[in-house]
Amino acid sequence: MANVDQVLIDDWYVVARIEDCPPNSIKSVRLLGEDLVLWRGSTSESPILAWQDRCPHRGTRLSLGKIVDDTFTCKYHGWAYNSAGQCVNIPSSGAQRPPTSICIKTYQCQECWGLVWVSLGNPSHDIPPFPEWDDPHYRKIYFGTHSHHFYSSPFRVFESIFDTSHFSFVHPGSLGTDTQPEVREQIVEVKADSITIGNMEITQSSIGSTGIDSRVSYTYKIYPPLTLYGYKESIKGKMTFLNTVTPIDEEESLVWGQLAMNYGHEIPKLEIAQFYDEAMSQDIPVVGSQRPKLLPLLSQNDSNTPWTSEVHAPCDQASIAYRRWLKKLGITYGVC
């Protein structure tokens, strides 16, 4: 995790869906340049554990190993570790008890909103709220049939998520319409722990609609630094969502999320998930083409950047507030 800002190390990130981690499962993931292994014991009540994907004996990937009686066994020499990461058996040593100093590096892990969240540090805040998750009037649907892989800075990707002005051109006929691209002046409120973006009205075609365009209103709340809770209100009802970006490294990211809707119960969940798969597939090449790949925070007068300064439009006021916020946090990873 060289050169990763402490504020990023101490945050929460989604690394998997809970349903992808059944009992006795092993899954390798990567977060902020660190290789991790997720595993669960023999029952559905067993918690999902997040460990460094490295056996301290000879550095072998633990994710190549297996789970035996709720202990994790390394494939190389059979060293076994209990759920606390403590080595409990070294087969080559016979009955001799392993030293208590032999431990796997473990990380904090939570299961929340159908997702697996991991922190590599010591977060001072909890996972952002999603109040509609426990409301029986709302359907819960994954944001796509899978996570969405971007080869771009996590901050570039996240900025695209709350940028409604691109909907009319990257997603015409679904999230926007190129015949009515206007975006009303936004109301941006910056607080110590969040940024709220309101008054975002655009014209779009809703999922499962007859193709008739309608005016909808978005409200977003950004939690530092890569998670967004938001909702969309239309004549059909209210859709809420939690979107979050996982930084694999400085120029590679995953987008995860959940939706909750109090309308559209007749629309199959798969159709809605595939709608967002298509939207993300339209975003991926566009965001991936941005140069520089890292999100620019330096001023146009800084001689250390080879890129000309980006220019802004009135609809970019939320983006400007977000970039200023990142700079105030002292973020250096994934930005330039």
UniProtKB/TrEMBL annotation:
An example Gene Ontology molecular-function term: oxidoreductase activity, acting on paired donors, with incorporation or reduction of molecular oxygen
UniProt keyword Cell wall biogenesis/degradation present: no
Keywords: 2Fe-2S, Iron, Iron-sulfur, Metal-binding, Oxidoreductase
Cross-referenced Gene3D superfamilies: Naphthalene 1,2-dioxygenase Alpha Subunit, Chain A, domain 1 (3.90.380.10), Rieske [2Fe-2S] iron-sulphur domain (2.102.10.10)
Keyword Zinc-finger: no
InterPro entries: Cholesterol_7-desaturase, Rieske_2Fe-2S, Rieske_2Fe-2S_sf, VanA_C_cat
Boundaries of every Rieske domain copy: 12-118
Top-rank lineage group of the source organism: Bacteria
Signal peptide (UniProt feature, chain positions): none
Cross-referenced PANTHER family: 3-KETOSTEROID-9-ALPHA-MONOOXYGENASE, OXYGENASE COMPONENT, IRON-SULFUR DOMAIN CONTAINING PROTEIN
Protein name: Rieske domain-containing protein
